[in-house]
Amino acid sequence: MWLPASPRGLLSYLVTLHVLRLGSADFRVVGPGHTLQVTVGQDVVLPCHLFPSMEARSLDIRWIRHQVSEIVHRYRNGEDLYGEQMEEYVGRTELVRDGLSSGRLDLRISGLRPSDDGQYVCTVRDGSSYGEATVDLEVSATGSVPQLSLEAYEDGGIRVVCRSAGWYPRPEVLWKDPDGEHLPSVSQRYSFDETGLFDTEDVIIVTDGNRDGKWSCVVRNSRLNQEQETSLHISAPFFHNARPWMVGVGVLLVLSVVLLGLGAYLWRRKVLQSRELEKRDAALAWRKFLLPHNPDVVTLDPNSAHPELVLSADGRSVRRGRARQDLPDTPERFDTWCCVLGQEGFREGRHCWGVEVKGEVGADFRVVGPGHTLQATVGQDVVLPCHLSPSVEARSLDIRWIRHSFSETVHRYQNGENLYGDQMEEYVGRTELVRDGLSSGRLNLRISALRPSDDGQYVCTVTDGASYGEAKLDLEVSATGSVPQLSLEGYEDGGIRVVCQSAGWYPLPEVLWKDPDGQHLPSVSQRHSSDERGLFDVKDVIIVTNGNRDGKWSCVVRSIRLNQEQETSLHISAPFFHNARPWMVGVGVLLVLSFVLLGLGAYLWRRKVLQSRELDVVTLDPNSAHSRTCPVSGWEKCEKGKSTAGPAQHP
User: Which residue ranges run through the membrane (predicted)?
Assistant: First the structure.
């Protein structure tokens, strides 16, 4: 057998021989033909199979990453071999053996991690036969809702930081101004946590102080086409504080109205005291209202009683009979509803009377409800269950679903037909009696596209001649609203006025504020309103006054009924609290003015001293002095004397 003489030639020969051997495989390994997309934490099955289908339990099956030494899982001759497995896959892989007999070589990986992202190779060897197929796996994760932080005043604007965690792959961060235009960031930072997920920190300087507006940070996963967004409304006063000269002018104005502010404080204190008194009076009135009342004595009017109602001789009580009585047809008599009027009327006050129930009245069946409260979400469909006991044919009965009274008909079905004449307007086109179960006594009602107004009690009533039965059920309709939006509206009462707004809730949600320690804070005002669909919008305000601490302040909007909540947080650094205390800035301005005046005085005094030092020293001539002038410690100085004696006369 001929072999090349040179080492390089020998290597080429062996490679060529190996390729020729690979080409002699009796099978072909086939992958999925498309990229698999899975979320971090989930399990995934990487598909791979032999073509044509054949028994694979005796083959050497190896799942690897980029090279043969990076073994994800190995199976040979009916056994899993873990000796060469990569450490990060230990305990997380399993070859799906159910399909081995038909040539399926699927690999299950549990608890996906970011490091699992990438390409896998399914290799199969059977003696001299070899085949492989590649599988691309994209592992992704959508991170947390971004948290915004006001960190400092910088370059005439406000430094706003957007932070979000738990993304894979590395996300894209976009800033939008109040007009929806993209803004460039001044810095971007990314880091990994211990699980390999990306944390991002992005910074902008908001400098447009002439406009109120909503500034938004959007973090986007381009692979999943998913994003998380948080917005913050910053009002003009915060931009003014980014310009120190404007702060000085504002402080001088504030100092001029200190007395007015003091008067306002005293007036407000008086108003709060009066409100406390009003609340106390209201509480006392409510307690009085809750005191038990004795039932009123009502005399019933026999001319208005339904024919099935039997009145007592004194007209003080009534019961329902088993058959209709032959009574005069008076205009005021109830014929459809089993009702009776009282002879006396009430114009005002609160009145009550007792009702004694003594069991079934002549019904050959019993109407049964679900026995528990139904819960559904706004926009969904719901089926209200109701059935007859014992089960009887119901297609010939008068079935009526109502709200609180018979005049509030939700749906009516009688003798095989739906009757819409009495139906409440808000249910038109949204109700359907489920007819499939009528033959077995099921009277279920389907309501589509639930609205907040559908919340409450329903009554399923059935009439069959003189027989009547009913069952009540409660329906709780709920909706979880939007992620709260925070707004910095201005400085107030020595702190920062922060507003939290959220929309689309039902029923009315609870709003909680938490300080950096997680303690709940009282709000200073709460407002809520309903939109055209009946969903609640909430607006809650606090005054953040703790200026000695940096920290995260959170607004939590919670649906107690669903036990679900939405939360948004905002980090406010100390410099913003300092501007909330005008007296501190005022003291600073006064100190600056004092230093300026002291400096000016020192400058003038020093100038005077220097000028005096520049004066020439002159020695006076005593022979020329006036007779009343005498020397004082030499003739450098002279003063006017008190006598006429003097030195000798000279020509």
Answer: 245-267, 583-605
